[in-house]
């Protein structure tokens, strides 16, 4: 740590890129031995983390901790800066959990002051605050753990345009898949309806043909018309008038002795 402060009284270190609306770790290392030799206006009693916004010329204190460091502690939500380390040589380390806001703090300047005098200060990434642009889904647990480490280079900067184009392409692909699924469903329903109609038509046609075949295969009743009895039956119909020839045949049959005997036989068989 002594080597880190070589040639400087105070050194402040910021992340290479800040994360918007998150706690970002700022460290300030103070060489109390060199500070004691400076012609400070008043003896320093605190270390201040000061910010100068790009829209303002004056600076304002963001947080302060007791100087010199007598006890060490971790920063808390209610007290975001504190002395976190000290050495026998009088090197004090202060940590500030800075809730950065891109809209307010982008391009602003951070400083660490311990003496109102000619202090030699060295900065790392604190002269103009830069904020990262990243795809939130690409961050891992390891990235989150190291996000506040000073000098951390695991960032994605300047990917806003590419992320927007990726989201647009993804939306177009999803829309195409939805439309394809709807069209496929309509085609499937149409096929089912067409198949059902075809089966119904075929079944109806088959039943009609079977009915016709049954009617055509039934033979007509056989009517025996042989002999004089057929002529008598024909003559008995009201709509058939006997001709003169039929009358002659009937008269001859009546006078024929064999006709009389046949009639008698038929009567005896019937009885």
Can you give keywords for this protein?
271 residues, alpha+beta, Immunoglobulin-like, 5-stranded mixed beta sheet, 3-stranded antiparallel beta sheet, 8 strands
Structure description:
By secondary structure, the chain is α+β, with helices and mostly antiparallel strands. Among the domains are: 10-158, Immunoglobulin-like; 172-203. 40% of the residues lie in helices and 20% in strands. The strands form 2 sheets. It has a 5-stranded mixed beta sheet. Strands 4-3-7 form a 3-stranded antiparallel beta sheet, with no helix packed on it. The radius of gyration is 58 Å and the shape is rod-shaped.
Compose a concise summary of this entry.
Among the domains are: 10-158, Sandwich (Immunoglobulin-like), CATH 2.60.40; 172-203. 40% of the residues lie in helices and 20% in strands.
Helix and strand arrangement:
Layout: E1 10-13, E2 22-31, H1 32-36, E3 46-52, E4 60-66, E5 81-86, E6 91-100, H2 102-105, E7 109-113, E8 121-124, H3 141-146, H4 160-217, H5 228-236, H6 244-255, H7 257-270
Parallel strand pairs: 1-8
Antiparallel strand pairs: 1-2, 2-6, 3-4, 3-7, 5-6
